[in-house]
From TrEMBL:
GO terms for biological process: cobalamin biosynthetic process; methylation; siroheme biosynthetic process. Pfam families: TP_methylase (PF00590). Keywords: Cobalamin biosynthesis, Methyltransferase, Porphyrin biosynthesis, S-adenosyl-L-methionine, Transferase. This is uroporphyrinogen-III C-methyltransferase. One of its GO terms (molecular function) is uroporphyrin-III C-methyltransferase activity. Residues 5-213 form the Tetrapyrrole methylase domain. It comes from the Bacteria. Pathway: Porphyrin-containing compound metabolism; siroheme biosynthesis; precorrin-2 from uroporphyrinogen III: step 1/1; Cofactor biosynthesis; adenosylcobalamin biosynthesis; precorrin-2 from uroporphyrinogen III: step 1/1. It comes from Sphingorhabdus rigui. PROSITE patterns: SUMT_1. The lineage of its organism: Bacteria, Pseudomonadati, Pseudomonadota, Alphaproteobacteria, Sphingomonadales. Its EC number is 2.1.1.107.
Length: 255
């Protein structure tokens, strides 16, 4: 039996085969699973039929449960002796607000443990053979959130450019603003960019263009979240088309 505590578990970018062994074990044995809306159905299917599911799905314009409410759920369920898994897409500590949830548990005297997951950037890069670092193209990577408050007031100068890779999470809805900001902060309009949509899933897509066309391409292609934007010369090292064909064929075999 697991000791009653809260586990902040990274579900990864979607493919259930990318779960850690520990994550899969905890998902299957938890008493309560508090889950995001973007966790893939194949991963949700691993949850024990006896477990209680609590959805705390979020979107850009609507949070079904505010963060303070999520924190309260985790603490309350653990205080009565239940093993609680907080199941989060990607990794709990990369734009997953896992730090806030861990703090809330610790403040309440609840044992909490973090089980890392493969982030969207790592999963998407691997699926499309897009190296986030490359000896000939980049020796530094920066992760930023494209929906953060005060976006226009932040200084992004130097985050992308020669020898650097910029990965933008949650940037689909603000792509035009992001483009304007990066160019105004000194980045060349013809810098290569890629958009990786639903990375590692059977319906994944990868698109490439230049920075000045980013917002228009997202509209043309009807890109939807979850998706990440990669900015930098590493985009030109990608083998996205061939890799995605491979994953599609594998999905057809499984079906």
């Amino acid at each position: 039996m697991e000791k009653a505590r809260v586990y902040l578990v990274g579900a990864g970018p979607g493919d259930p085969d990318l779960l850690t062994v520990k994550a899969a074990r905890l998902i299957a044995s938890a008493d309560v699973v508090v889950h995001d809306g973007l966790v893939d159905a194949a991963i949700m299917a691993l949850i024990s039929p006896s477990a209680r599911l609590i959805s705390v799905a979020k979107s850009r314009s609507r949070h079904s449960v505010p963060q303070d409410g999520i924190n309260d759920i985790l603490v309350r369920e653990a205080q009565v002796g239940r093993v609680v898994v907080r199941l989060k897409g990607g990794d709990p500590f990369i734009f997953g607000r896992g730090g806030e949830e861990a703090e809330a548990c610790r403040d309440a005297g609840i044992d909490v443990e973090v089980v890392p997951g493969i982030s969207a950037a790592m999963g998407g890069a691997a699926a499309t053979m897009l190296p986030l670092t490359h000896r000939d193209a980049s020796s530094a990577v920066t992760f930023v959130a494209g929906q953060c408050k005060g976006l226009t007031d932040q200084n992004w100068a130097g985050l992308a450019g020669k020898g650097r890779t910029l990965v933008i999470y949650m940037g689909v809805a603000t792509a035009a603003d992001i483009t304007e900001k990066l160019i105004s902060d000194g980045l060349s309009p013809d810098t290569p960019v890629a958009v990786l949509e639903r990375a590692t899933r059977p319906d994944a897509r990868a698109m490439q263009t230049i920075l000045t066309d980013l917002g228009d391409m997202i509209k043309r292609e009807g890109v939807q979240s979850p998706a990440i934007i990669v900015v930098g010369d590493v985009v030109l090292k990608s083998d996205a088309e061939n890799r995605l064909k491979h994953f599609a064929k594998q999905a057809e075999k499984i079906a």
